[in-house]
Amino acid sequence: MTTENMIIVGDKFECFAENEGVLTASEALHILKHQLLSDKKIRFKLGQGLSEAQVSQLVKTAQDTGVSNLLEFNETAKSGRNYVHKHQQRNSMLGLPRRICESKFELDIMLDDACDEMGDHVTGHHVQGMVITEAARQAFLTITEAFFLKDNDFSSYFVINTLNSQYTSFMFPLPATIEYEIVEHKEKKAGAHFFDVVMNVVQNGVVCSVVTTSFSTYNAGWLEKKEAAMACNAIKYVVNNEDEQNVAA
Q1: pLDDT of amino acid 201
Q2: Quick check: 29 and 10 in contact, CB under 8 A?
Q3: Which InterPro entries match (predicted)?
Q4: What is the pLDDT of residue 31?
Q5: Centroid of chain to Cα 139
Q6: Which of 34, 69, 105, 136 is 20 to 30 A off residue 97, Cα-Cα?
Q7: With bands split at pLDDT 50, 70 and 90, how would you rate the model's confidence at 245?
């Protein structure tokens, strides 16, 4: 008997789920809960768009109905607030980081379709470019926090110097990985760091996007004072400037 693979994606990817071999999280839960399995040998794989709670519910339902052997996935573990700097877990887009060698790392992309970047709508079959760029931004926060700042006794403030995204192929709501390489790293005074990195977003062996960035980290206590002074200067300029500006009707 041949195995039929089914990929589960978030409900907002309903357009993509119209393709053969794909179903939404709600459809998968309904099938497992009511044991609507055919005589075919089925393996369920995990795509993008599900929350940790949805994945957990699928796993528990499969266990309760005695078909957990049909799932090719288990509970997921995502990078949390300390790594991705997001207060709500639905906005974390990454799994836990893996170090490959001194300068190379990997992270699995784990999108929740309730994240802020997808809160308005999803267009077509693919994942929007800005979602990919945000996942890459979270990647450099995560790698830096997990491997370079973890021993600091102070919190750090990240400053982006450059951020460039190149999109070379559509990324779909399927498993995808960020390959992360540090091109240059300098450690400066008072625990400050400078990084120049390149990130390849890879799906099915194809590079879908290349994101390059240079950024710095500083002691938050030091930079917050400097930022506050700059904010005051910016406010004074606007308050004291009476020039009229052209505004679109």
Answers
A1: 98
A2: no
A3: AfsA_hotdog_dom
A4: 93
A5: 7
A6: 69
A7: low
166: Cβ contacts below 8 Å, ≥ 6 apart: 209, 210, 211
Characterize 38-73 residue by residue with b for buried, 16 or more Cβ atoms within 10 angstroms of its Cβ, and e for exposed: eeeeeebebbbbbbbebbebbbebbeeeebeebbee
Six token digits for residue 87: 């207060």
CA distance 129 to 166: 9
- Of 155, 216, 225, 161, the C-alpha closest to 189 is 216
User: Which one-letter amino acid corresponds to residue 209?
Assistant: S
Residues in the chain: 249
Q: What is the pLDDT of residues 117-154, one digit of tens each?
A: 998 878 789 999 999 999 999 999 999 999 999 988 88
Please give the model's pTM, rounded to 2 decimal places: 0.90
Structure tokens at 211: 């994101």
- Taking the CA atoms of 127, 131, 132 and 138 in sequence, report the sign of the dihedral they define: negative
The span from the CA of 180 to the CA of 161, in Å, is 18
Which tokens in the block code for residue 117? 């970047």
The maximal CA–CA distance of the chain, rounded, in angstroms, is 78
Residue 16 burial by CB count (10 A; 0-12/13-18/19+): exposed, middle or buried? buried
Lowest mean pLDDT among 4-8, 84-88, 123-127, 178-182: 123-127
**146: Cβ contacts below 8 Å, ≥ 6 apart:** 83, 97
For residues 108 and 152, the answer to whether their CB atoms sit within 8 Å is no
Instruction: List the one residue out of 118, 212, 124 whose CA is nearest residue 171.
Output: 124
